[in-house]
Design a protein that fits this description.
The complex is a heterodimer of chains A (about 425) and B (about 260). With about 425 residues, chain A is mostly helical. In chain A, a hairpin with a 2-residue loop joins strand 3 and strand 4. Chain A folds into 2 domains: about 30-310, ABC transporter involved in vitamin B12 uptake, BtuC; about 325-425, no CATH class. Chain A has 16 helices and 4 strands. Chain B has a single domain (about 5-255), classed as Rossmann fold. In chain B, about 35% of the residues lie in helices and about 25% in strands. The longest helix of chain B is centred in the C-terminal third of the chain and has 17 residues, at about 240-255. The N and C termini of chain B lie far apart (about 45 Å). Classes of the chains: A mainly alpha (about 425), B alpha/beta (about 260). The interface between A and B is medium-sized, with 29 and 39 residues.
Chain lengths: ~425, ~260
């Protein structure tokens, strides 16, 4: 029985990884517009950087506010290497430029991480913040390297095409990014199943006890920080190739904050959580920001709700439902989810109508009308404000009613599952 | 090797101006089981913290198998063959029972900080962790997260992690703290089973338990070792009775133990 469950687990692993590879290959064929190729490329890069961030946050319990330092410096070294290659000063193919970024990330993690990982907890977080500010300040002080306000530009088409590949067309860059994404994800997953990867979890859980089973907790943190820096640098190098320009914002606090926010949103407690977060990050920055000027406000609200009600992120919500499904109890919950979604959308529609009108008044003045969900809203008319407020209130009340019903049902299901788990343990 | 497994020479420790450990000198022979008793605040836990490297002594020497270990880091002392448990359960809450034990095993088998080998392929580490899991009777809870175990199970896991690395000197700080009388008796049997052949130092409040478990008793009172002898001799020692045993018996009767 043990053997069969093991072999079925290894089959599941094969299916997952081949599915992931296949998805990376066919995604640009299914979504063949220019914008979607750009988005897919950015998603690949974001996946690598969010997973590398989660090595610290989810697996090591290290809350870093400065992870963009390592992806960003990787970007800078990569773009300089690209320009050196173009000038003939550095004999390196374009396909290996992301590795230059990775090595740069690793090198800076070796240097800066030694100080950073001396401490854990709040002190660690404060040091990462300080290092982040330091590097950002440097980027303005040393324009020779960081390119000042304009940044450093490059051209990824270097030399003659090899087998017809010049990396000029976005689709060719996409496949290069996809390859690096696959290898990096596989590498970071493999890391979680090694002695160092497991001891990193142990350090997260209880750094003190780690020291009494022979390990230096600080050294474990330092090594993990270096590995995370390497993969962040790879993502930075890919970003340099993708955009062909690197500006100081890539090492900035905003970037670091986005990595933290979306890794958390995706779910730091499961390996695949940051992948979800990465997809959301790119969609938010590229699409959602086009949709509404208030997108950062929405993002902040979503983040607040997640921290309060689902601190395990989207991944943990998924896994909780997978567990329920495994015990055959998901079907009874689906009607609840439909009702929750409907009532939530009503409340959300009311709330966002208000938010959009406020933004409209602030940005355009109260005379301008705006189109919202197929309706024309007139901020100058009090009735429209009242209506939007009423929709919010009614939706909110209905949602609260649905939420309470769902909470009771959910509790009952969980109790039932706990009971069955205990019975299974007793009979094992 | 013939010398003592653990030796303390005039060990002292002060916090600020207060001297908590006031010159302790003892020698524990290999394979000896020592029960450490004393009233609350006598310095028993501090003594364990000094030996295991949590704090460095202010003065004096501590020798493990003849080698100085005072002032070393906990992990350096652990690597030299000394392991300890904690009075307040100190495990890896978000890891499974099996993973907890495997974390205790890895260093001693030489895997150190490697990230070039898969855990699943480390047959010796996995077998040792499985065997430990059986010896502390938690094989049914293999994949349960440590945080979800019962208190008694967590105490057993605490012992499991402590012995996992195969250290030959084991310090147990109140292993039965918070357990009922009957749980305690069971647990002491378990401790005896899993520490066969080891040098053992145990802080234990239950006098019946301690006199049954130990070859020798160390009585710590006010930062000093008042007596260090066989249970019979300690029981007969007038000074010990006066300073400690009598009061503890009275105290225990009051508390209705």
């Amino acid at each position: 029985m043990l053997v069969s469950s093991r072999s079925s687990a290894s089959r599941a692993r094969w299916i997952t990884w081949s599915g992931f590879a296949l998805l990376l290959v066919v995604a640009p064929l299914l979504l063949a517009s220019g914008l979607s190729i750009t988005i897919l490329s950015q998603i690949g890069i974001a996946i690598v950087v969010c997973l590398s961030y989660n090595m610290l946050l989810g697996q090591g319990g290290m809350l870093s506010f400065g992870h963009a330092v390592y992806s960003g410096l990787g970007s800078y070294l990569a773009i300089h290497a690209l320009n050196a290659a173009a000038a003939g000063a550095l004999p390196i193919p374009v396909s290996l430029i992301p590795l230059v970024g990775g090595l740069a990330g690793l090198l800076f993690a070796v240097l800066l991480g030694y100080v950073t990982t001396k401490k854990s907890g709040t002190t660690f977080a404060m040091i990462t913040l300080g290092v982040g500010e330091l590097v950002f300040a440097m980027s303005l002080m040393v324009p020779e390297f960081f390119g000042g306000e304009a940044g450093v530009a490059g051209n990824r088409v270097v030399g003659e095409p090899f087998l017809g590949i010049s990396f000029g067309p976005p689709i060719q860059v996409y496949y290069l990014i996809a390859l690096y994404t696959f290898l990096s994800v596989a590498g970071m997953y493999a890391f979680t199943r090694t002695p160092l990867g497991r001891m990193l979890n142990a350090v997260r859980d209880n750094p003190e006890r780690v020291e009494f089973v022979g390990y230096n907790a600080q050294h474990v943190r330092y090594l993990a920080f270096i590995v995370a820096g390497f993969f962040a640098g790879i993502a930075g190098g890919l970003g340099a190739l993708n955009f062909e320009i690197v500006t100081a914002e890539v090492v900035g606090a905003g970037r670091s904050g986005a990595y933290l926010l979306f890794t958390f949103l995706g779910g730091a407690t499961f390996f695949f959580g940051p992948i979800i977060g990465a997809v959301l990050m790119v969609l938010a920055f590229v699409l959602f920001s086009e949709l509404t000027k208030a997108w950062l406000l929405y993002l902040g609200l979503i983040f607040m709700f997640m921290v309060m009600y689902a601190p395990g992120g989207i991944a943990s919500l998924i896994m909780m439902n997978v567990r329920v499904a495994r015990f055959g109890r998901l079907r009874g919950l689906i009607p609840h989810y439909v009702v929750l979604a409907l009532t939530a959308s009503v409340a959300l529609a009311g709330a966002s109508a208000l938010i959009e009108m406020i933004y409209q008044v602030q940005l355009e003045g109260s005379d301008a009308a705006l189109r919202f969900l197929g309706v024309t809203l007139q901020p100058a008319q009090a009735l429209h404000w009242l209506l939007a407020g009423a929709v919010l209130l009614v939706g909110g009340a209905l949602f609260e009613w649905a939420r309470r019903r769902f909470a009771r049902q959910w509790g009952a299901v969980q109790e039932d599952i706990e009971l069955r788990v205990r019975q299974m343990e007793a009979s094992a | 090797m013939s010398g003592p497994a653990l030796q303390l020479k005039d060990v002292r420790k002060s916090f600020g101006k207060t001297e908590i450990i006031r010159g302790v000198s003892v020698s524990v022979q290999p394979g000896e089981r020592v029960g450490v008793i004393g009233p609350n605040g006598a310095g028993k836990s501090t003594l364990f913290n000094l030996i295991s490297g949590r704090f460095a002594p202010s003065s004096g020497e501590i020798l493990l198998n003849g080698q100085r270990i005072d002032g070393l880091k906990p992990y350096e002392i652990n690597r030299r063959g000394l392991s300890r448990s904690f009075q307040i359960t100190n495990i890896f809450p978000k890891l499974s029972v099996f993973e907890n034990l495997r974390c205790g095993v890895l260093w001693s088998l030489g895997y150190r900080y490697t990230f070039l080998r898969f855990l699943a392929g480390l047959d010796d580490a996995n077998q040792r962790a499985e065997q430990l899991m059986r010896s502390i009777h938690l094989e049914r809870k293999r994949d349960t997260l440590a945080v979800n175990l019962t208190y008694a199970e967590q105490r057993a896991l605490e012992i499991g992690i402590t012995i996992a690395g195969g250290a030959d000197v084991i310090l147990l700080d109140e292993p039965t703290a918070g357990m009922s009388r009957s749980e305690t008796r069971h647990f002491i049997e378990l401790i005896k089973e899993v520490t066969v052949g080891k040098t053992l130092l145990t802080v234990e409040h239950d006098m019946g338990v301690v006199f049954g478990l130990a070859d020798k008793i160390a009585v710590v009172v006010y930062g000093e070792v008042l007596a260090f002898d066989t249970p019979e001799a300690v029981r007969a020692n007038a000074r010990v009775q006066e300073a400690y045993l009598g009061s503890v018996v009275a105290q225990q009767q009051e508390q209705g133990h």
